[in-house]
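User
Take a look at the entry that follows and flag anything odd:
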Amino acid sequence: MKQFLKQNLKKAKILVAFLIISNNVFAQEQFTIYGKVVDKQEPIPGASILVKGTNLGTSSDFDGNFSLSLKKGEYTLIVKALSEPKEVVVNLNKNTSITVDLSNSFVKLDEVLVSAVRVKSTSPVTHSNITKEDLENRNLGQDIPVLLNYLPSVTSSSDAGAGVGYTYIRVRGSDATRINVTLNGIPYNDTESQGTFWVNLGDFTSSTQSIQLQRGIGTSTNGAGAFGASLNLLTDAISENSYGEISSAIGSYNTYKNTVKFSTGKINDHIEIAGRLSKISSDGYVDRASSDLKSYFLQGSYVDDNTLIKAIIFGNKEKTYQAWYGLSKEELKEDRRQNPYTYDNETDNYWQDHYQLHWNEKLNENWSTNLGLNYTKGKGYFEQSKEGSAVSKYNNIVEATGVDWYGTPATDLIVRRWLDNDFYVLNFNTNYKKEGYEVITGVSASNYKGDHFGEVIWARKFADDANVRDRYYFSDATKNEFSIYSKASFKLNENLSGLVDLQGRFVNYKTDGLTSARDNLNIDKSYSFFNPKFGLTYKINNINSIYTSFARANREPNRDDFKNGSNVKNETLNDFELGWRLNNKTISLNTNMYYMQYKNQLIQTGGLNDVGDYLRENIEDSYRLGLEIDANIKISNKLSISPNFTLSSNKIKNFILERDDVTENIGTTNIAFSPNIISGNSINYQPIKNLTINFLSKFVGEQYLSNTDTKTSKLDSYFTSDLNLTYKINPKSIFKSIVFSGVINNVFNKEYVDRGYTFLDNWSTPGNSFEVQGYYPQATRNFLIGATFKF
């Protein structure tokens, strides 16, 4: 026994010595890259630094500095700051110091296209940045609002329930009419309705380089005032090298996506031509809520050291079956996938083409200019069957074949309601940049012309002097906008920097003619708005900073608001923000408090109009108060988590309810469609090289469909989770890479409703009213899988 112990003790000593030596050897094989990311001499905070082919990475601090500890060897670092990545090769056999200068990259010129509407990572504006790589993992056919669902304070929904077709996004409870969307700095929101119709941007994700979401008023310098958020999209940057790409995806509900992309790369170091063709189709989770989306994107570019010229053409043709009226509670229990429509061609059909020209010129080391021109042509209709409809609504085109339930002469017929519009935009700005400060000054002008009309394409009995496609109403509209702005960011000292953003916006809106109900709609309104923004950022140290800002925005009513009441008023918002940012090797943390104070806010009542849009009314005094927290925490080289959380209070003060000619002040109530709690989380795991697993979760608290706090208008909270997997193969021939990706949406098969509407039939006391409601059921467990071949 003694001999046995001696022998094993000797072996243990040898083992311990081996481990100590091995550990020392291993430690000696570890080296550190000390780096700095700059634009000439100016540091770039918040730049992303990734080790190619791994899940390792970090980001630059307030002074642009970063560090990475790696084993001995050769590495390729991918450095990006909301741009095409720049690759840097490092041969690591000792501690190494590098500087990555992005100033001479042609990609920086691409970023100038959106410099007037975007903010830097250190700006006193609450924002989130989304890169192309972030989008690619889940780009399997679902629309942009669905892909952004896991950002802080964001909720999304779709009519068809599966994220394809008519989709919607809300930020801090504010709907799409209050979110300023720009494409390469060009306003995209529909000029009259102020909404964003993502169905007209089919597969636009495949042509998007980066996205910035600014919560609150943000720094939008053109288009309608941002009353909830600004969403700025930058299309594909110029590719240095030629490539081809074919991607396909299939999934539940007969969902298919097919995309072909190409780029010539830089021909003679100056010219690039790139393009995309896409087709997405889906039957939808809801019966007869199918979508057929065909889109294209074509870009020609010229670039040299001082010039970037881009000519871009993109467009979409969509056909979607309507599901905008949702389901009653009884229908939801009976069959949550049913669609009560009975007409087989209850479809929306719309074509939209965009023509953009961008010219950025670097005049010298300090001055540059940017010119943007846009023309958008849109035309389309939706078709609807009208059973037992009063003939008085149709301008003597049809004759009665019976009566409706009021005893009014009526008939059955089918109508098409058309929109035919043209939209012109001119943006111009100058950029003066010197060490310590930058000033952007510019103008934006736009002209919109739109015709609204309806035609009868079938009736049980036409009038003797009427013909198929005779119009029963017509209205034209013009809207002219002009904005002038100046935005300055500057350093007051080494730790304190500021932002001043001033905008004057001038609007004239005219309409003449009849609505679809044949009511007169004659509007001639002009507005002059001054929208100032001020902010400060204080750097506590290299990893901590705080910021505060104040911004004011004003905006005019939209077309539907004027249709619903002649006394509608413009709105004003005062937005106060206070935030703290922390950024070190293992954690990136953003904490923000906001107070958004509204005067005459146009708040959704919960009811719908005859085309499925929410009705709105002026509320004299209301506010949104909230706390937002989001983080990215690196647990190990293979595992990280990205949680976010919003806690808010969204209130109307002294809500005046008018019903059945009775007016009553019912006190402070919750704003409709504004949950008090929104949280999300992403668990990111890379078990082996080239395999990435993301588990995403979303919780949305209870909310109300109306502004009266009635029990029957309360929408239950819901919690959903998605599982996303991506695996990349790098073949030695034919293809540069093959990427397989898949997502299981709603992994736990939750039956939930995330949106609805309500019409108050009568009201007595809060919590005891009888209401007519509709609900939009979202898909239970479903999947999408796809493959992308790059060559």
Observations:
- DSSP finds six helices and 45 strands in the chain.
